[in-house]
């Protein structure tokens, strides 16, 4: 067991020495250390502090930490400085799916095998948990994000790609949910391999991306929408210029220059304490169109940016991708209409349906199910793909893939743009 009081004390000492070195460098006109240099220097400082602690323990007639205990302390101090404190072991565990925290000592962890277990506390107090989240909010993303009584909600992307959502003061105790990004660099072949999509759907989606079809991925929370979006984006040729627009950076396409060398990632900016400086998703989508994009990728549609995005899709930016919350592929059209009513344009439903019909080519619906009879693993799979065919007072569509016997999508209806898809290698596996 690691002594977290020691970790906290040593983290403060190392942090103070690191800050002192930064001030010295600045006073001597030296360039600031890079992130990696700072981490390496911090490791040396951690070793120094632990060595001083061992000598102190011996001087007091006590047993110094063992080699194993020192290694655990060093890892804990480094995680507290540059990682997420006691959450780090959970984020390092490849089998962890989600982490839900209802106060510092009420920690629930969901695993890939379907288990949900209670975990050890992640902080000594709720105040310490809030402090940890505040540190993460200050250094994650493109700009510092406040998390306090005036700003009790927070969404951000952790360094490992996981998505964190936190609230305080609107709940009895601070609450945090972390959704793990277990698949970072993911390809269609990976999703075929783990059963998310069939080979036929994989070939279909590859051809749809190559044919520059506008695709909306729909599903419930934690169904795997973002992972599927990443896989689709990785089918885009590296020569194309991509603009991604997100509330909190999550897609991370710019982190793989060998796949996407020309990427600009936009992140929504929240207002400051005076209510100034906000840059909304809708504004970012509009700005992205002026940045010479080959394709615009909107990480998640949750509001009035939908009208701007649909307009972008109808103005020559074919091949756009996005995700949206919905309970079925058909419900997507109603969800979009609801968001459009909230936009400044106040589009009536008829006009929204016309816009949808001219903008979206396919809706891909992904869902999740805990199959206890198949090893208890949480299963994610594409169950439905709907092609948009036009508008006649409402959006006309046909379900080209429907749920098969095991829930996974199987071919159902002819695809109207089959010739275009065939030009990019897709031939249906039969109806």
From TrEMBL:
Residues 95-355 form the Bacterial type II secretion system protein E domain. InterPro entries: P-loop_NTPase, T2SS/T4SS_dom, T4SS_GSP_E_ATPase. Pfam families: T2SSE. CDD domains: VirB11-like_ATPase (cd01130). GO terms for molecular function: ATP hydrolysis activity. Belongs to the GSP E family. This is Flp pilus assembly CpaF family ATPase.
């Amino acid at each position: 067991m690691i002594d977290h009081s020691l970790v906290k004390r040593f983290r403060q000492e190392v942090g103070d020495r690191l800050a002192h070195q930064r001030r010295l460098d600045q006073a001597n006109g030296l360039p600031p250390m890079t992130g990696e240099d700072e981490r390496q220097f911090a490791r040396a400082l951690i070793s120094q502090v632990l060595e001083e602690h061992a000598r102190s323990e011996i001087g007091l007639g006590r047993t110094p930490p063992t080699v194993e205990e020192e290694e655990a302390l060093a890892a804990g101090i480094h995680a507290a400085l540059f990682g997420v404190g006691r959450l780090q072991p959970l984020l390092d565990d490849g089998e962890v799916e989600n982490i839900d925290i209802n106060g510092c000592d009420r920690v629930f962890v969901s695993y890939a095998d379907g288990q949900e277990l209670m975990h050890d506390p992640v902080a000594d107090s709720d105040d310490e948990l809030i402090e940890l989240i505040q540190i993460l909010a200050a250094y994650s993303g493109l700009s510092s994000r406040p998390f306090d009584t005036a700003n009790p909600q927070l969404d951000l992307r952790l360094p490992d790609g996981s998505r964190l959502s936190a609230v305080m003061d609107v709940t009895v105790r601070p609450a945090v949910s972390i959704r793990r990004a277990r698949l970072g660099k993911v390809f269609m072949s990976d999703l075929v391999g783990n059963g998310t999509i069939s080979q036929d759907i994989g070939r279909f989606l590859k051809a749809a991306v190559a044919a520059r079809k506008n695709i909306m991925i729909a599903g419930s929370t934690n169904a795997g929408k973002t992972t599927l979006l990443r896989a689709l984006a990785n089918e885009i040729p590296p020569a194309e210029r991509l603009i991604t627009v997100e509330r909190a950076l999550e897609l991370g396409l710019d982190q793989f220059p060998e796949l996407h060398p020309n990427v600009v990632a936009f992140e929504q900016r929240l207002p400051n304490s005076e209510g100034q400086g906000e840059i909304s998703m809708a504004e970012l989508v509009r700005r992205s169109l002026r940045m010479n994009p080959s394709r615009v990728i909107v990480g998640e549609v949750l509001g009035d940016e939908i009208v701007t995005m649909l307009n972008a899709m109808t103005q020559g930016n074919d091949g756009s991708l996005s995700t949206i919350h919905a309970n079925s592929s058909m419900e997507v059209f109603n969800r979009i209409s609801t968001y459009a009513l909230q936009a400044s344009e106040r589009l009536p439903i008829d006009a929204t349906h016309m816009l949808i019909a001219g903008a979206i080519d396919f809706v891909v619906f992904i869902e999740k199910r805990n199959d206890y009879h198949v090893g208890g693993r949480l299963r994610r799979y594409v169950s439905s793909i709907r092609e948009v065919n036009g508008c006649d007072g409402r959006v006309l569509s046909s379900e080209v893939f429907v749920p098969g016997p095991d829930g996974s999508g199987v071919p159902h209806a002819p695809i109207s743009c089959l010739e275009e898809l065939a030009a990019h290698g897709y031939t249906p596996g039969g109806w």
